[in-house]
Amino acid sequence: MEFTHEQMSEIISSITNGQEGLQGLVKMGMESLMKSERDIHNEQTNDVSNGFRDRRVCHNGKMFEIKVPRSRENHFYPMLLGVLKDQEAEVQRLVCSLYAQGLTTTQVGKISEEFYGKHYSKSQVSRLLNGAREDVGLWLKRDLEFRYPIIYIDATYVLTRRDSSVSNEAYYTVLGVKEDRTREVLEIINFPTESSTSWKDVFDSLKERGISIIDLVVCDGLSGIENAITASFPMADIQLCTVHLKRNIVNKVKPSDKREISNELQKIFSPEQYNITSDSAYDNFTSFIDKWQKSYPQLKRYKNDRYRLYFTYFKYERAIRGMIYTTNWIERLNRDYKRVLNMRGAMPNSQSVILLMGNVAQNREVHKYPIYNFLESKLFNII
CA nearest 95: which of 290, 365, 355? Predict the structure, then answer.
């Protein structure tokens, strides 16, 4: 059937003036091209048409619901979809980049409108971020090295929505120092509550991903963590973070005693000391407790053998003690997390937090440079 010029003009005018406007005309053109392409495919391959499937695509900032032709053998894929897929990937890259820089889904939607002429809703931005979530998820499950001389574990706390409430949840980063003295984030774990913490599962997962040897674990005095480390990596030394311990002690005393006690603790824990062992440093600490527990009976709890783990760093070279007696290596990374996370209020879910933290960790350039101070340490010179 052939149409006159006037009839064609009337049809086009009717379509463009309809509810979908020019978008409807573009949609019809796309579907017609793909249908013609399928006809050619069927002739060349002896395949048979098999209806259509619905597909949402993006073109020049516009979202289209189009009907994609199918073939019975499922070997037909329209070339036009490949072109549209490239454009959608471009939008997705922009959305992921903006979101990773700390913008909210609402802000990302508005900026995308400036670039592509279409406003993306929160749900549309979230859908476009699915690829980034998958990439970060795969990176956090990648194969790991056989040996890590040191790993650090520390938490950052993020306001996270869960059901109808918001709570300050812990997100732990496991940072590994490799044998070449460079660093990499091994895992990011969310533990909504203290009771949900399972460090055994964390260390078992690290073993499954390829780690056989960890020489030293530096972490806070987390409940049950030393038992989990010993079960999975029995030869690993454990160093609990001295900053947290000193802070906890100072917070228990009267303001008038804070300065004196802080100075004494500073001397006891100083990594610069000569001719000192872990045992003698712990003895100095218990003498300090004996002195002050008369005024502060609650300090007696620190005379427990578990607190020997705060003095493991004295087993190592004086040049590196200041780098292994706290979790400061991760706390610097935590500040980078916060620069992105603090641009928002409460995060919508834990997956969004891990996406942002994973993106920051994955792209942290400073981790690619070897740490010079570790050069002469026995931890990195095992033959």
Answer: 355
Exposure string for 157-188, b = 16+ CB within 10 A, e = fewer: ebebbeeeeeeebbbbbbbbbbbebebbbbbb
Determine which helix (DSSP H) or strand (DSSP E) holds 176, and give its type and residue range.
Answer: strand 165-177
Distance (Å, rounded) from C-alpha 38 to C-alpha 175? 52
Query: Residue 262 to residues 243, 253, 311: CA-CA distances in angstroms?
Result: 11, 10, 17
Task: Measure the CA–CA gap between 52 and 54, rounded to whole angstroms.
Answer: 7
Q: Alpha-carbon torsion 251, 254, 255, 259, what sign?
A: negative
Which two tokens mark 9? Answer: 């003009």
Can you tell me which residue has the tokens 């959608």?
88
User: Cα-flanking dihedrals φ and ψ of residue 197, to 5°?
Assistant: -70, 125
H helical segments located in 217-362 = 225-232, 242-250, 255-269, 278-292, 318-324, 328-341, 350-362
Nearest to 153 by CA among 123, 127, 179, 189: 189
For residue 246 the two structure tokens come to: 């000193």
Closest C-alpha to 183, from 148, 142, 137, 219: 148
User: How far, in Å, are 93, 109, 110 from residue 122 at the CA level?
Assistant: 16, 7, 10
Q: What is the pLDDT along the chain (383 residues), one digit of tens a residue?
A: 555 656 555 554 554 455 455 566 667 777 777 788 888 878 888 888 888 877 766 655 556 677 878 887 767 777 766 665 555 666 666 666 666 666 677 777 777 666 666 667 777 777 777 777 888 889 999 999 999 999 999 999 999 988 888 888 999 999 999 999 999 999 999 987 765 568 999 999 999 999 999 999 999 988 889 999 999 999 999 999 999 899 999 999 999 999 999 999 999 999 999 999 999 999 999 999 999 999 999 999 999 999 999 999 999 999 999 999 999 888 888 888 888 887 777 888 888 889 889 888 888 877 888 998 898 898 997 65
Q: Is 331 left (phi over 0), alpha (psi -120 to 50) or beta?
A: alpha
